[in-house]
Amino acid sequence: MTKETESNSGNKKNDKPSKMDDNTGGILEKKDPLRANKFLPVEDSAANEFENEEEQEVADFSCGTIENNIANLIATGNMFKAHVIAKKAFQKQPNNVNLAQVYALVLLKTGAIEESRKLIYQILEIVPQKDEATDAMMITMDDLLACKFLTEGDPSIVANVGHIFKESWKYSHHCRDLEISRELYLASFKKNKKTSTGMNAAWLSWLTGNDPQAKQLAAEVLKLLPPFGLEASFGELVDLAEAQLLLGREDDACKLYEEAMKQSDKENYISVVTVRQQLFFLREAGFKVPHEALEILIPPTIVVFTGHAIDHPSFQVSLFPQEIEEDVKRIITEKLQSINAKVGYSSASCGADIVFIEALQSLGGEVNIILPFAISDFIETNVRHAGPRWEKRFEQVLASAHSVSFACEDRYLGHDMLYRFSNHVMHGSAVMRGKFLTTEPHLMAVWHSRTDSLPGGPADFIDRWTNISTLHLIDLDELGENGDNVEKIDQSLIQQQNFSLTFDPFISKSPDRVIKSMMFSDLSGYSKLQDEHIPSFLDFLEKLNSAIEKIGVSLESLNTWGDAVFAVASSAIKIADFGLRYCDIIESLGKKYPEFPFPIRARISLHSGPVFIAQDPFIKKVNFYGGHINRAARLEPVTAVGQVYATQQFIALLYGETNDERNECVQKGLKYYEKYSTEYVGMISLAKSFGQQEVYHLRWK
């Protein structure tokens, strides 16, 4: 892959779409952490190595093992890896029904709803028909009840297909999906009499309004096992608890959940999370789920970490001397154990970051490292000054981490704002993961209470954390020799001197670098309009402009040329609102011009990142420049028509901002309403050989 190195303003060229799976910098999972030292873009090499690793994983595992592996990845929110493994396994064995249903579930979970349905219809060997009520291609109940798969299929696979239809309903909201799911589970339960299958059939009967059948099935499940689950497994205890819940016996259900937790493997939290997800699903559907049950089923804690590095040799005042490292590690370990921490997000500076990573890994936790900029710059500014021992530990934590990614792969250039952007991405990524694990992330910070808040530093992260109930502070000042000192530390005494990275003289005079969210959009088919369509198209643009003015979102920049629109705002929420409303306007307005050879529709791409802000010397207005403008522009041509696609960085910032809004509402006693829904699209190759990007489909909830 080659990457354009010149700064590019908002002027987007007409890019030709290219067709296509984690971050702009790619996921570097258990790879050589120093291979990115040459300032070369890492997207393609990372993605290729990752896919090669998954290719070997597919070759090493049997079909059943692959299914279990994919199920675990889905349960823990690792959709990208699940997608790669499932796709490659199915391509190798396209006639394998087991792999087909697993791949269909992954497709569904990653937002490819129609593709998932097509695969399931092939398994059922039923041709869908257009449903007049929903205008969607669906199978009829008569066809389902008559199909051989329902009566002759393997009961476990029949139940799995039922699960896919239940999950599909969460996206489609078509009652038919629930009815189909119910019949599949019922057919499976009649054959295998598994408690889990019976309870799914029972809940689906309740969801579709058949209370008597639901209670009858729950009563049957209770008869399959000894009273109160004597010698029952974790899963069977959960099924008994759900049966008691459905029959209105909350106290008995909670006792069974408590017994299940005693038998759960505390190192493997997936099963507990799955049970919680089921209860949240039922609660959203209107069933009264006792709060006590959710308190019993404790999910793993996700920890976002920030902390000071080991003192730089040029510091005139000590913040984190190497002598207190063991004390810091002991306190971090104790706090991690006290909150049941199992998943962590952190950078990897020498000092607190690496100590945190090693502590969490020693407890069997999963660590996800997010670096703020190019790895060689990071080593030079955040690792090397502490000596070769820390450099070696840096290499080791990267090699052993669950994932290593970059908030951006750009040069540092002395801009501390990149640290703040990385913190935003880290926070949002943890919130996204928390949605899968039905929990909210915690922030753990090793800081010095007498230092000022600088962009991207621990105090800055603490100041921006809105939920103090999930904040855990470790004050270095209390561990040092000057613990009784109350005076603020002069910032000039702890600034790194003799900065060893060399910069071009022009770069040293570079404009401000700021974090912005941006949108690119153009109109599908604009270049194919003929001269006779231009008067109507100008009328279309006039009405479009009037509608844009009424959107009411505060933007920092809005440029248009031809059919293209480029917008910049200070927050991801503002750009998300503007992009989605703009898409809605185009979809509605485009249908009002029958003289066009096709309806006018938009492609919209959203991205967030650090950009340079300066006055355009030609138009004498503020404009934005840099590689992240290019990245936003290169995503737009490969966006599906009529859709809003967003990069992983944008979605991370959006989740972080909405999480802050939610916490503020909770603190004020107000109800928060989710506005957005995100579905994973995959790793997409960007236009003009600009590498690969993990992309999500953004829409209104």
Straight-line N-to-C gap: 36 Å
Into which percentage range does the β-strand content fall?
A: 5-15%
* Total beta strands: 16
Overall 3D geometry?
globular
Mean pLDDT: 82
> Which fold does the CATH topology of the largest domain refer to?
Serine Threonine Protein Phosphatase 5, Tetratricopeptide repeat
Radius of gyration: 27 Å
Number of domains: 3
Assign a percent range to the helix content.
Answer: 40-55%
**Overall SS class:** alpha/beta
- CATH level-4 homologous superfamily of the largest domain: Tetratricopeptide repeat domain
Largest sheet: 8 strands, mixed
Q: Which residue ranges are poorly predicted, with pLDDT under 50 across at least 5 consecutive positions?
A: 1-51, 498-509
**Multimeric state:** single chain
**In the CATH classification, which architecture of the largest domain applies?**
Alpha Horseshoe
| Total number of helices | 25
CATH class of the largest domain: Mainly Alpha
